[in-house]
Amino acid sequence: MTTVTVDGDGSGDYNCTGVDDQNVINSALEWAYTDGIDSDPSTVYLNGPCSYLISNQLYFGSNTILTGDPTATIKVQDYTCGNNIPYGSPGASCVFPDGKCVMAQMPGTVPSNVEIFGFEIDGNCQNQYTKLGLAHGVPSSAGSGVERMIGFFGSSTGANVNGVKVHDMHFRDAFGESLIIRFGKNIQFYNNKCENHQHETVYYIGVVGSGNTIDNNTIQGISSDCIRCSNSQGIDIHHNSLSSYLGPNNNGAALHGQSGIQICNESNKSILTNSINIHDNIISDQGLAGIWIDDQLRTAGNTSQSVTIYNNIITGCGWSCWANWASGISIGPWGNGITIEANTIDGSYQDGIQILSAISAPSAHIVNIKYNNIINTLGKRSGSSGSSLTDVGYGIYSAVLDTVTIVNSNNNYFIGNLKGDYLGQINTITDELVNGQLGLMIPTKTRYMFYRLQEAVTGDTALIYPAPGGEYYLLKLTQSVAKGDQMLAIPGAKGDFYGVSTN
Q: For the whole prediction, is pTM greater than 0.90?
């Protein structure tokens, strides 16, 4: 592997001056593109501490690694995106209009084997001439897909973006996404810190195949969604911490305008979303839904559109209440294959889980909701407006006839929901425990609740806990604990205790 360095003090292989630094960095990236091969990509390393100021795009080819010191920052220069000349007048401009990305693919290429990690990208949206971006040829509000940080686009009928890793980065203060991939495979976004992205933060469109992940990120959303997967298949979304950005650099974006995770089919793309796993995330204080599932394509019929949601903690979501789907988990039009299992959904506005509409099909679709804690649903927030939903304050609410969507509620635990546990046509089921099923019986004030054990995988922090008959259970340790979380205390050999999440 060959590496070249970029610096701002004259000591690098490529040296920037602090003005229009994209010209120098692009020269280094061009070298990497011509030098790297599939088995041995070439590396461009950004030395820090240094702010590399750019006023136009950076271009990636295949077989390229861009990395750097944590103190190295690529920053959009002040007053680059937009200017102080009124839109439509001579000289008015926006450097990053209509989805133009700060980091993009080289013209005429579809990149593969690209890795980006280790440094910071600052969109600097608070220091632009305008609170508006130029999208679709006209000024649009924040959240219009302007000034996207990293964007690689493949084709629905041609080459896919293949093998992109973005990890251990800090992204902040941008009108658009930290990463958008359109038509790709083997896409991984992990261990990143992201805040104040005024469209989606991470956006996969038409991403298919295996090895696609969004995991172990800390995201503070402000508009649209922290994570969105549209018309995508085989995505594993796990161990992310999603909350709201409440800082000063919003530059026109409304606070609490986002959902945590949106899974959807867009109406203008033919790929059917399928095989989505959402698990072990902490989703809190989202203005709209903690998790939102929505199919505007509506062509699936009885074809499976599997979305499995398990072992998540969803608290205080739906705060804004201006949309009907503001809630803990909201399901709009959808078909077969939704399972919601072993989650804690606490303090949701409007409803804990809601099924608002469905796609038509020859037979009824099934939503399985089981072994969840659905507690303390609040109804509408005082002073909120915009939502027309009147059936609020329930643990589970279904607005769909059971001839279209069969909603099964199996062994869920409810307490403290404002209007009650259920509203709508919902089948309530209480299963007997299955012989050999691994789990723990947890006492509550009124009964015992059974919690399935989540088996640990390589790399997890876990406890080996003895069980009757000489067997041992492997219990995963919780990653973080907030006041009011339900916990187990497992005694250690030295008299200390280890906390284990009850779900």
A: no
